[in-house]
Amino acid sequence: MPVARPESSHPRIIAHVDMDCFYVQVEQRKKPELRGLPSAVVQYNEWKGGGLIAVSYEARGFGVKRSMRGDEAKQVCPQIHLVQVPVARGKADLSTYRNAGSEVVSILARKGRCERASIDEVYLDLTDAAEAMLRENPPESLEAVHEEVLKSHVLGLANEDEIDKKENVKRWMCNSDADHRDKLLACGAIITAELRMQVLMETEFTCSAGVAHNKMLAKLASAMNKPAQQTVVPSSSVNGLLYSFPIKKMKQLGGKLGTSLQGDLGVNTVGDLLQFSEEKLQDLYGVKTGTWLWNIARGISGEEVQGRLLPKSHGSGKSFPGPRALKTAATVQHWLNQLCDELSERICRDLEENKRTAHTLTLHATAYGPSERDSHKKFPSKSCPLRYGTGKIQEDAFNLFQAGLREYLGSYGAKTQGSQHPERWAITGLSVSASKIMAIPSGTCSIMKYFGGEQRCDAPARQVEANFIQEAVPTSPSDSKNCTELECCERVELTDNYSDYIEDNKVPMEEDKNLSLLGHEVDSSTKEASQPHFPSESCSGKTKVSAQEFPSEDVRHQLSTARSKRKEQKNSALKDQGTILRFFKSNDQAQEPTRSQGDGSNSCNAIQNGGGRAAWSYKVDEIDESVIAELPEEIQAELESWIRPQKRANTVKRGGATTIAHYFSANQK
Ligand code: TTP
């Protein structure tokens, strides 16, 4: 992705659409009697009335805030209606919200390239649609401009009162003397207003939007006027918008980079950045970060709308604060099993509906250790190749946990198995994610074909997918060793996809991480995508699997009946776990475990240390991975390419590395 490019030659029209108090709206659609009333969605944990996760605008009017608990909200607004988030597997179940988000995406995607940025946020590239409108049906030729368009906030327009305001907006939208950029923007605003009305009509949800010439400005603008409004950013207003915009509120500057800008340079607003030359910023923060900062100060951003309706990864998590912290391996395993069960269901549905397979399983945890000295220590995230099947995912996730725990406890040499020393560690958050999701290349033999009976396939999906995964997942050097017992551990490495995992996530909530992993829990695509097209060529000869591995005729019949049933019940997809899911579940039970549940800790660590971490240079070791996530994607990519070869080659690359390292070391204090 380019850092920035001149935007004047070919202006783009980008909209950022953000649903208003989204979970509340979903609950209000279920219970229409709540419409217009102060209401909020609370976590399932009822302590002090449950933590609020979404607050209606009516309740906000009474001073209710998301940071409150139910009891506190009732104090400031006694008439508030609190709705508990749906629960499954002892944790919040977000499927209703995910599905509702998908409904919206499928409508928005009708007018241009669409990127689903989180459970309730979408970027749209409306350039082509706006250009077509300007060519064929320009605003000044419209008989009437819709009220919703006239309600737009156009930054920089002087608005005395409501009537004047609408008149001004109309004049601006229909100005045949305006420059080309503004004309296109006006078309984009009209298209966005139409889309928002369509969303309201088809889903009953209101949303707000920002319309600008790039993603960064569109996102800033969408939050400026809520609910159910849209804000337009003409080029002439960009400086005014950014001049006083708090630096920490910028996407990617909320964390350590923003803190460094404030603390080290005294930069408090985006406008403050204008005093620094590009060279100076590059000197301080590295070439790419420096240029990126210089660009954002001027409202320049070359980030493309990705054209992604489906999530980049799936995640399932839960936190265990205070007395609920997990202190034994058995309780950790119990909860990991729940999380993995959900994750498995979701990736199987993704495979079935979208023909996509996930390739990496990652475990994250938060913990506190045996001593005060330990309080700053992070539980290391761990990844391994993802094997399909609930049992396998559960087994691998627990192995990852054990590997992480050994490393976390490290020098204390505490035992990681059993509960002999329950006081030595406590887990306050657990999450598992499936990432590196890829479409099955067309022509690949598909399980759907087999189940659907449209075409005979000579391999069960499990085998096909296993082959596919084997091909696609890069193997670690240790793969060549004949050490089945440690297979999983050998592949364990410090996760390299942590930034993917947290990208787009909402601020973590206190109680249930699941509620904060929104960007990655969006799992359903547009409705049209639920019936994939199957290639017609035969798959015979691709795999060698014995006949008894096929499901029996009965099972096949059962599976295909279940599938047709599910088609009928698209909107209650949750209740039906899907054919593949059942298939994997049943096969899973039948399968011999291929990996040892044994400890193997020493060898595992030795391999890991010997092959990886110990070989890292000091600078790489100092990088706080959470910082990487704050950076723009292209900078993350640069860091990745810098870090990975280092891991392999045990050499320090010069050049850009020095400047980036400067940034990271500056933040070590
Ligand atoms: P947001 O878009 O941040 O907020 P919102 O849609 O509730 O309200 P607004 O109109 O101000 O945009 O989040 C979308 C949904 O994500 C929200 O309804 C609830 C959920 N959520 C969490 O579960 N945890 C969080 O920390 C946040 C911020 C949101």
CATH topology of one domain: Alpha-Beta Plaits
**Tally of individual helices:** 26
Cα-atom radius of gyration: 26 Å
Q: Can you give the mean pLDDT?
A: 72
Largest sheet: 6 strands, mixed
- At CATH level 2, the architecture of one domain is 2-Layer Sandwich
Stretches where pLDDT falls below 50 for ≥5 residues? Answer: 1-6, 414-419, 445-563, 569-628, 641-669
* SS-based class: alpha+beta
Name the overall outline.
globular
Q: What's the CATH superfamily of one domain, by name?
A: Reverse transcriptase/Diguanylate cyclase domain
- Assign the CATH class of one domain: Alpha Beta
DSSP summary, beta strand count: 16
Bound heterogens, unique: thymidine-5'-triphosphate
**What level of helicity do the residues show?**
40-55%
Strand percentage lies at: 5-15%
InterPro entries: DNA/RNA_pol_sf, DNA_pol_Y-fam_lit_finger_sf, DNA_pol_Y-fam_little_finger, DNA_polymerase_eta, Rev_trsase/Diguanyl_cyclase, UmuC
Family: Belongs to the DNA polymerase type-Y family.
Protein name: DNA polymerase eta
Cofactor: Mg(2+); Mn(2+)
